[in-house]
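Troubleshooting log. The previous run stalled partway through. Resubmitting the same two chains, unchanged.
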Amino acid sequence: MGCLSPNAGMPGGQHFVRFLFAWGGIALISLQSIIGLVILVLTVGMIIIFSSFKRLQAPGYLRPIPAFQQLRRALGLAVENGKRLHVTLGNASIINNNNTSALAGLSTLERVAQMSMISDRPPLATSGDGTLAILSQDTLRAAYRTGNALEQYDPDQGRLGGITPFSYIAGTLPVIHNKEISSHILVGNFGPEVAFLSEAANQEEAFCLAASDSLPAQAVLFASAQEPLIGEELYAIPAYLQAGPAHQASIRAQDVLRWILVAALLGGAILEIIGGILGIKLI
Amino acid sequence: MRAPLATAVAIAIGLVVLVGYFVPGLAMIRSAILGVGVILVGVATLVGVLNLIAVHWRKVRSTTNRDFYSPFLILAFIITLVAGFVMGGPSNPGFQRVITAIQVPVETSLMAILSFSLAYASLRLLQRRKGFMSITFVISAVVFLIIGSGFLPDSQSIPLIGSVVSFLNQLPMAGSRGILFGVALGGLTTGLRILIGADRPYSG
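Second attempt completed without errors. Output:
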């Protein structure tokens, strides 16, 4: 549906509304945009409201996912054994549409850095994009500053693997084969070539939790990674690592939105069937 | 509050860009901000590459943590950089031909290795993770490999098999849509968390 365009036959009321919006330098908003804005406002409202409910932030409130239990165990073991953790953030640029998985990866990195602060081997972050490399350095710095351990921060902990998909994988493989690293967390936008990383982790018998927003990467990771996450489970990693009330609230908001989506899909299908029986177009 | 100024700037810029998607009147401001963003991404890539070279240079000079591949990386970087300057930049057809002649065979070889690696991983999946999902994954992979390989070329014309193949072809689409809905909702809440300042992937 496009924007309402100015025309001579426009009713007076619409002229008035158009004038009001145009006065602020804003053209008329299409119905699709209004629906989008309503969903955004609804989601923000839910995140804020759910964040204020203490009951929803209890550790046992989220459904148990074995991969996250394994991750917490691997984090604990790494700290105990004096081993390093590795988080790789994929190769989505920050200005791409598919960068939200990398943003979830940055939240994960921050939480992992906080949880392993007592270890003398800080975590290592690799990425396939310059902006992500800088953000990973900044995220680590923020984590150490918050934990009053800024002296532990080293900019080399957040590094660029390569700027093309294969060079990124090639640059990250030596990190996977590093004997000082016991756990790898692969979170971000990858292509099918990510299987090289998960296979290398298997060869080193290291723990590997892998999640991507890309369907081909999810398919290869399901076959090759030790603990693969499917679909929106990627965005739940910070919440399961107790990153903060907003993360838990996001999970609740996603659940509500999913039910709304299911209801809309079912409603649409039912209306389509009824319309087909009656011979009229209902939607 | 951590980095109040950076948070305020990030929220303000984020809101303008977001609202610009819905309100056509703000599209120009959104484009201008995104234009600045693209320039910053270019600079960040340069910084990232310099960081990469610095890390490998330190590895070359290190006595304890020396990496066998680091000198090759630095050498390849210098050769590419010099060739780029000498041949007139990355848009030069000769330079592109040289780079493509090296990059494409290497990446194609890696893809070939990947296919073997994945076939092996699929076989090992049943050993490593016994369960209903693993069995379903392997069976579906085999079924769709057969359907997609053109092994049944005239299957659509056979009455019963045609319907079954047509139904099977719909399944991946339905499944992928379900996964993508979840990913989209997760992406939405992640983005909004940053927009309201609840999540800050920057230190300020």
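Takeaways: Helices of chain B lie at 4-22, 27-61, 70-87, 93-128, 132-148, 159-195. Chain B touches chain A through 68 residues (CB under 8 Å).
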